[in-house]
């Protein structure tokens, strides 16, 4: 049989195998083991459909807006973060075979290949869920981490009502956005940096052109006159990688009023600071760090990687000219809160001068 005929048979078979066909087949098979009048019949059929055509036990968590993290350590061990608290899930995959099917479906949906040469894979599902996969020999067994971002259109008022900061801080943040201050958010993973960043962007006037630069589409900007740029990982050498640094350099040719970088992680720090200190006021980004001092130290380190010939004094001057406000976020008993806000008030030989906000 030639390849064209084979492909035609497979395509026609897939087209004729609809979800209804699969459901009818499952119903008939299930009747061999269970009376249709039994209360659990429909529930078991639903679970089977999810296992074969969906994400199995993970499906309910992906549909639950309160679940922000899904951590799958093995076919029988799943943890979820719900309302800021990590807990062991009641659900599990029925077998390693079904877990393997789930893994293959995830890889297909994020359009990635994972094997011995590529045991670590990142990707994003269509709904914006961020996926990280680690396979042997890096791990004992496949480990899948799924991070979900709320689709809610966050505002500063929403965050105030949830206790992230006070109404006084809300008004001051809003005034800083209007005054086109350059804002840097910092904190550990999962502290709400992306959520606050989205809320600050929502405060920007509609006629301003915003360009966002990210590794994965987490900011989900839907406002008019905005452009979202995403990095690309090199695939089998066929396509070159596109880094945050590449995107930032090109974004400057796209007439942005404000630049937003999802998270500064590497040498793009230099391009970003250079841009915001020479004309693109009102820009924003985030960085890992547990305090304003730590955020600036990390920023200095990242800039030095892009400009190793620069002295510490030159780097600090660039940072001082570029960054106006630093907002530090953290967690308190599972709740995301602003823990520190400082303005850069001066630069001395010993370091930066801060003017802290009362919280």
Number of strands: 14
Give the N-terminus to C-terminus distance in angstroms.
Answer: 74 Å
The CATH architecture category of the largest domain equals 3-Layer(aba) Sandwich
Broad shape? elongated
Note poorly predicted spans.
13-17
Q: Helical content, roughly?
A: 25-40%
Number of helices: 12
Strands side by side in the biggest sheet = 9-8-10-11-7-12-13-14
The first-level CATH class of the largest domain is given as Alpha Beta
Beta percentage is 15-25%
- Quote the average pLDDT: 86
CATH 4th-level superfamily of the largest domain: P-loop containing nucleotide triphosphate hydrolases
Rounded to an integer in angstroms, the radius of gyration calculated over CA atoms is 24 Å
Overview features:
Rossmann fold; Beta-Lactamase; eight-stranded mixed β-sheet; 14 strands; 12 helices; 359 residues; elongated; 3 domains; six-stranded antiparallel β-sheet; alpha/beta
Describe this structure in words.
- The protein is an alpha/beta fold and about 350 residues long.
- It has three domains: about 15-55; about 65-150, Beta-Lactamase; about 155-355, Rossmann fold, CATH 3.40.50.300.
- About 35% of the residues lie in helices and about 25% in strands.
- It is built from twelve helices and 14 strands.
- The protein has helices at about 5-15, 20-30, 40-55, 60, 95-110, 155-160, 165-180, 195-200, 245-250, 270-275, 290-305, 310-320; strands at about 65-75, 75-80, 85-90, 120-125, 130-135, 145, 185, 210-215, 225-230, 260, 285, 325-330, 335-350, 350-355.
- The strands form two sheets. The chain has an eight-stranded mixed β-sheet, with helices on both faces.
- Helix 9 packs parallel to helix 10 (about 270-275).
- It is elongated and about 80 Å long.
- The chain starts with a helix and ends with a strand.
- The model is unreliable at about 15 (pLDDT under 50).
């Amino acid at each position: 049989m030639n390849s064209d005929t084979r492909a035609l048979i497979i395509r026609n078979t897939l087209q004729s195998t609809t979800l209804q066909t699969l459901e009818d087949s499952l119903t008939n098979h299930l009747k061999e083991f269970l009376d249709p009048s039994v209360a659990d019949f429909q529930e078991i059929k639903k679970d089977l459909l999810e296992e074969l055509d969906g994400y199995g036990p993970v499906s309910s968590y992906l549909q639950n807006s309160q679940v922000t993290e899904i951590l799958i350590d093995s076919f029988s061990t799943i943890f979820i973060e719900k309302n800021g608290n990590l807990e062991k899930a009641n659900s599990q995959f029925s077998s390693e075979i079904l877990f393997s099917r789930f893994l293959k479906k995830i890889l297909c949906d994020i359009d990635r290949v994972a094997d011995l040469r590529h045991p670590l894979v990142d990707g994003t599902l269509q709904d914006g869920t961020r996926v990280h996969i680690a396979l042997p020999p890096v791990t004992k067994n496949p480990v899948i981490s799924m991070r979900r971002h709320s689709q809610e259109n966050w505002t500063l008022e929403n965050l105030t009502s949830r206790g992230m900061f006070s109404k006084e801080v809300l008004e001051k943040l809003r005034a800083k956005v209007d005054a086109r201050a350059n804002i840097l958010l910092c904190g550990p993973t999962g502290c709400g940096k992306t959520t606050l960043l989205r809320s600050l962007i929502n405060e920007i006037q509609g006629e301003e052109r915003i360009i966002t630069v990210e590794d994965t589409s987490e900011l989900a900007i839907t406002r008019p006159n905005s452009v979202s740029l995403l990095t690309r990982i090199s695939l089998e050498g066929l396509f070159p990688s596109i880094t945050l640094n590449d995107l930032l350099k090109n974004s400057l040719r796209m007439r942005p009023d404000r630049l937003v970088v999802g998270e500064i992680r590497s040498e793009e720090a230099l391009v970003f600071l250079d841009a915001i200190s020479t004309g693109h006021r009102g820009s924003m980004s985030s960085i890992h760090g547990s305090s304003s001092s730590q955020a600036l130290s990390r920023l200095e380190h990242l800039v030095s990687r892009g400009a190793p010939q620069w002295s510490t004094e030159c780097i600090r001057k660039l940072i001082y000219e570029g960054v106006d406000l630093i907002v530090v976020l953290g967690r308190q008993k599972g709740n995301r809160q602003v823990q520190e806000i400082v303005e850069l008030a001066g630069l001395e030989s010993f370091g930066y001068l801060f003017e802290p906000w009362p919280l």
